[in-house]
Amino acid sequence: MTSTAAPASATTGAARSNPAGSRQRARTILTVTVNGREREDLIADGMLLLDYLRSVAGLTGTKQGCDGGECGACTVLVDDRPRLACSTLAVQVQGRRIETVEGLTEGGRMSPLQQAFHERLGAQCGFCTPGMITTAEALLRRNPDPSVAEIKTALGGNLCRCTGYVKIIESVQVAAAARKEGA
Ligand code: FES
Ligand code: FES
Questions:
Q1: 105-183 is classed in which CATH architecture?
Q2: Closest alpha carbon to 145 in 182, 173, 120
Q3: Model confidence over 30-55: pLDDT tens digits?
Q4: Among 10, 43, 58, 137, which residue carries the largest CB count within 10 Å?
Q5: CA 43, 45, 50 angle in degrees (round to 5)?
Q6: Could you tell me if the CB of 71 is within 6 A of ligand 2?
Q7: Where do the structural domains in the chain lie, given as residue ranges?
């Protein structure tokens, strides 16, 4: 467990006894599980999940693209569901289970999905890739054998300016087949 937190009573007490404290930015001790490891961090209430993951947790795999909920590059999994980290406050995921692209590796190696993106050229510049992979991972967890239409629908909120999407869809299909073989 990583802990950078001060006792909650220290901050709330200061705010109560000192009027100036009430003007200070509110802070919260965030307890979350990130990629299988529980963390506790003292964070500003207004901190975005994207900034928490990249700057506090040091997980820079999650990308900041549009920063406005349009591109999907910042997608992470929260309790197995895709979520835009640029449009989510870190305090909104209090107590939840977060997975980033780094956490999808298996035994220190690329997962079948990550491998498929690598081998089938689903990743070119790679900027959209973490969001594509986390979104596709969520799809394959709930639907191990998706059709092309289902893949397109699932990835509809993830933009890529390099691949033309064909290779990305192929990568997800290859990963689905590999997961079935390995099951
Ligand atoms: S950076 Fe979050 S949707 Fe674009
Ligand atoms: S691989 Fe470059 S944006 Fe998708």
A1: Orthogonal Bundle (1.10)
A2: 173
A3: 999 999 999 999 999 999 999 999 99
A4: 137
A5: 70
A6: no
A7: 1-11+23-104, 105-183
Cα of 119 from ligand 1 centre, angstroms: 26
Quick one: CA dihedral 121, 124, 126, 132, positive or negative? negative
Predicted confidence band of residue 67 (pLDDT cuts 50, 70, 90):
confident
Per-residue tokens: 25: 């930015």
Nearest listed ligand to the Cα of residue 164: 2
Q: Is the CB of 155 under 6 A from ligand 2?
A: no
Which tokens sit at 85?
């980290």
107-149 pLDDT tens trace:
999 999 999 999 999 999 999 999 999 999 999 999 999 999 9
Counting from 1 in the atom list of ligand 1, the atom nearest the Cα of 74 is: 2
Alpha-carbon span 162 to 139, nearest angstrom:
22
1-11+23-104 carries CATH number 3.50.50.60: no
Q: Which residues pair with 154 in a beta bridge?
A: none
CA-to-CA distance for 60 and 117, rounded, in angstroms?
19
Neighbouring C-alpha atoms within 13 Å toward the C-beta of 139: 26
